[in-house]
Every structure is written in structure tokens, then in C-alpha cells.
Amino acid sequence: MSANLPAAFADLEQFAHLWIGLETMESRYRARQDMPFDALKQFYDATAPRLADMMAHLDAFGSDTLPSAEARLYRVALGLVEAAQAVEFFAAARLPGAPYPHDVAVGGQAALSD
Amino acid sequence: MTNILSATPEGGFDLGHGMMMPDAAILRDGRVAADSFWSVAQHAAERDAIYRRCWLYMVRAEDLPKPGDYVVRDVEICGVSVLIVRGKDDVLRAFHNVCRHRGMPVADGPCGKAEAFRCPYHSWTFRLDGSLKAIPNQRCFPSLDADDLGLVPIEIDVFAGFVFINLDPQPAFSLRAFLGGIAPLLETTTLVPFTHRDSLSYEVSANWKAGLDPQYEGYHVGTVHALTIREISVTPANPFSEFRKMAFAGPHAAGWSQGNPGWRPRAERLVQSFAVQTMGALAGRVAGEGYPSAETPASLAIFPNFMIHPGAGGWFTQQHWPLTAQSHRWTAHYYYHAPVTASERLAIAQATTFARDSGMEDFMVMARQQKGLASGATESFYYGEAEMLPRHRAAVIRSVLNGAQANMRSAA
Lengths: 114, 412
Ligand code: FES
Ligand SMILES: [Fe+2]
What we know:
The complex is a heterodimer of chains A (about 110) and B (about 400). Chain A is mostly helical. Chain A has one domain. In chain A, about 55% of the residues lie in helices and about 0% in strands. Chain A is built from five helices and one strand. Chain A has helices at about 15-20, 25-35, 35-45, 50-60, 70-90, and one strand at about 105. The longest helix of chain A has 23 residues, at about 70-90. Chain B is α+β, with helices and mostly antiparallel strands and about 400 residues long. Chain B has two domains: about 25-55 and about 180-405, Naphthalene 1,2-dioxygenase Alpha Subunit, Chain A, domain 1; about 60-160, Rieske [2Fe-2S] iron-sulphur domain (Rieske Iron-sulfur Protein). Chain B contains ten helices and 22 strands. In chain B, helix 2 crosses helix 10 and helix 8 (about 270-285) crosses helix 9 (about 340-375). The longest helix of chain B is centred in the C-terminal third of the chain and has 33 residues, at about 340-375. Chain B is globular. The two termini of chain B are about 30 Å apart. The mean pLDDT of chain B is about 95. The chains are: A mainly alpha (about 110), B alpha+beta (about 400). Chains A and B meet through helix 4, helix 5 and strand 1 of A and strand 6, strand 9, strand 15, helix 8 and strand 21 of B. FE2/S2 (inorganic) cluster binds near residues 102 and 124 of chain B.
């Protein structure tokens, strides 16, 4: 899979592989639990200050399908949301004391169709 | 009169066992038997006296917008699988998800769209109104009358878009009577404008009432959520996140929080800041339509297991479904205005992720609490006066179980 990001964010490509294959909140949450905190922090430190720029870039594309480089950038931003939980609140990849690994189902028994 | 909205918890209620008052000793002292959170006998009594009697919230009416839309919801404590489907006549119906041939579930959960329900065992087929449409090789059933073999109906009713079922084939009271004085508060919970929803579900190793408790009080927030929501709720003026107002209506209750109106995300929390700001802009773009107001209860508790709260995007609802005496399933729906931009989608993802993690803080605590209670070390535990909502719920349940037992004795 190509890890190319839009040109303005090419410097973040080194992190893209962490997140671009993860389509669901569940898979991103599991990835966060499996990542060392230092790696999450390094990713956060490089990307969080760019978040507003990343999203301004993506907002210009309207609401439907994003071009593939932009779609990857959005996945990176979703990965940042997950990493930010670890960095901004817990100072740890996993919730202190939580069972490892654990999954919180998206939908699951409560699922609704769209 | 029952189920009147009142500022005090002593009001009467009737859950089909006759008029009752919440247990006076529990209301007075807050002392609750520890085994009410782990005994198998209590679990069975709650099943019969509560879950087989009360109206149980299932789904929003607009979550089943078109004919053929259905959900399957398991009420495990009763061993029942409930199929709710919108018919071709636009009517919502509920059925036992059980084939009339040999008992197979006819619909695969947890949701979907169907023209008809074809049983996966021998292909008996049922219409959306539950009637039996076709029996393959029907001449082998010469004495059966297909008209008598529709899916077994379950009582269903809708209030303000909230769809409830009742597993009692002849409910002792209507949904409206059951809701009583809490109904006006439910009516102000306008979920219709929030067409985007995230749904989560998690199985917790704790009694269902342990699951509800932290949703019923703010006392734990400063401790359990020290890293997450503490700063949104705890202020110097309100160090224990106490409700500023509580109200009770029969078995139901509501609590209004004080909140921290001056709260803003810390500047160094770049992602939370971006998300909160974007969510605020989303609310502004849709002119605040349907959003909770200052008069919105922080917790609206519909007995036995349904809670509604204001959330980051508008509202969220959650339920704690008993599985065993020592486990339950949490389900939650977070309602947001439909996002238009990528930023708005991201802000919603952050809000749900934050809610998931702060929920997990509660789940970790209750699973450990469960072990402590089930160890038998103590005979009782205590709800303080700031924990009046769970205290009231415990008092209601105690009276219901006492009353149901008295009814059984007098019938014997
Ligand atoms: S059990 Fe359903 S068709 Fe036989
Ligand atoms: Fe909590």
C-alpha cells in the first residue's frame, strides 16, 4: 500500500504506515494498546501541531470520497485522535489498570443499520 | 397517585405488584445488602419482578426508518431475543425471534433490512407483520393452520420516539402510566435532529446495578476520572460533583449537574482543543437545534436500566443489561448532528473515543468493586445523600422484591 500523503504533509509519511491500514475505531484502539508510549508520543508531537492544517486541507475536498492521498491523511488524523488519548490524558498507551488487550465493540449488540 | 415528579424520593410507584413505597430504611440510611449485587436468587427475583414486568427501552423509532428495517435485541436475563421491525404499513411491531416450526431465531442480529424473515433451519417464511407466509412442502403438515403460526408478538409502545417493549404478555400498566412524571423530561430529549450516531458495546464483569451506579452520581468523578472528566465537572465550589437538583418520579429519577461552565480544554491538549472547538462550531452551524439546555438533567434515569445524558455532540443514551448476577452488557449511543466536513467527522470521532475511555475508567472500577462485594467480606454497603439516585433505585428494587414475594405468598 502506498503511504504517500498530500505534498504539504510529506514529512509525516514516516508515520503513515501505523494507521493507514486501520479502518475501524476498534483496530485503532487495539493498535494504540500495542504501541509503546514513546512511539505514540513521537507521533503525537510530530502531527498534533499540524492537525488544524491537515483538517483545513481535507475540509477543502467536501464531504464525499477523498482522493487516495487525502484519504490516507484522514486515517493518520484518526490515528492521532487515538494517540492523543494516550498522550493528552493517560501518559500511557493503555488505560492504567485496564485489561490487556480489550476491545470495546463499535456497534456490537447495539448496532444500528445506516 | 403514582409516579409523580417530586423533589423527594419517597413517592409511591406501581410496577404491577400493587402500590408501593421505596423501602424506608434504605432511603433513610442508604445501607444496602451487599448480596443484592451478586446473589443468584436476587438476580432471578429481579428477572421475574422487574425485567418481565417493566417497559424496557429498545431503540429509537427513527433508527428503523423504512419498512423492513429491523433490530434484534437480546434480553439475556429473561432468555428472550426481541425482534423489532417496521412493517409495510409503517407500524413498528415486536416479536419473539423464534420460528414457530422448531424454535430457531428467524432474524440474524443485531440489525438489518428484510423483505420477510426466512428461517435459516427449514425456510419457513414470516411476513414483516409476523404472519406465516410459507411452509416449504406444506402437505407434510396436514393438520397445521398457518394462520395460527405467526411469530409470537411482544407488547410494544413508543413515547417521544423512544421505543419500549414489555415482556409481560398483558402488561399491568401502559407505557405512559409507567413513565408517569418523568415523561415530560423524556419529551424534551429531542434526538430527531441528531442523525449521526456512534454505538458502543462492552461486557462488564459486574452486576448491572454496579454498572448504573456511576451514571447515577457525581461522587466518583473526582477520583475515577481524575485524568479525564474531573476538570469538566469538579470546581472549587463543587469539589464532589454533586447534583444541584434531583427529582424522582415513581421508580425513575433525574439529576441536574452544576458542571464547570468555565471549562475549556487545556491549551496543550491540541487534539481535544481542536475537537471541542469544532463540535461547538457544528452546534452553531445548526443553530443549537435539539441541544440540551441549562435545564437538561445530566442524568435521566428510566427504571430499570435506561439512562439519557447530555453529551459532547448533543445527547447520549446508555443501558446496562444484566447477563448473569455478576456481569452485564453496556450499550451506548452517542447522537451527533450529521457532520459535513472532515473536521466535523474527526471531532465526532474524538468525542466518542473520549467517551469510550472515560467509560472504561468506570468499567475497571466496577469490575474490581464486584470482586470486593462478592468476596462476602461485608454484609452491606452505603450510598450517601449525594448518591440519592442509586439509593432511591435500591429502595425501589428492595420494595418490589419484597412485594413480589408477598404476592407470591398470598397467592400460595
Ligand atoms: S425451525 Fe424454522 S423452519 Fe424449522
Ligand atoms: Fe463515571
